[in-house]
Amino acid sequence: MQTNTQDFLKWLKTQIPLLEHLGIEQLGWDGQTLTVPTPLAPNVNDKGTGFGGSQAAIATVAGWCLTTLCLKERGLECDVVIADSHLQYLKPVTTDFETRVTLPDLSAADALAERVEERGKGKLELVVEVLCQEQVCMRLEGVYVAIKR
């Protein structure tokens, strides 16, 4: 069951009000990769480049969304949190950008769902990248934890 991303984004903005200010208007989701196209203008810093805090927030939310969508599509309602993250700012973001996160492999979501069903919680390690002109500008390595409701 593929989730309607516009409905999901509308709901998400009611849960995380900060997203209303970041200019995110759509999500791309194919069951394995989530993309978040984002305009630079509302996320600019005093140097005219992408604000690191915006990049960190969007990357954190992208991983959260992927984890949540994978579980929802497997019939599981869970509380998802980021338990650990490491950020690397590699290049300045100078134009509109895209945040992308992909499941490590196709079986990762099924394994997560099985762990949640068996133990009531599970974790998923993800790499989220912020891309500007197809170059990786920021990378978040994070551990997301899902707890069955």
UniProtKB/TrEMBL annotation:
One family name in Pfam for this protein: YiiD_C
Domain Thioesterase putative: 7-147
The protein's name in its UniProt record: Thioesterase domain-containing protein, putative
Entries under InterPro entries matching the protein: HotDog_dom_sf, YiiD_C
Species lineage: Bacteria, Pseudomonadati, Pseudomonadota, Gammaproteobacteria, Oceanospirillales
NCBIfam families per record: yiiD_Cterm
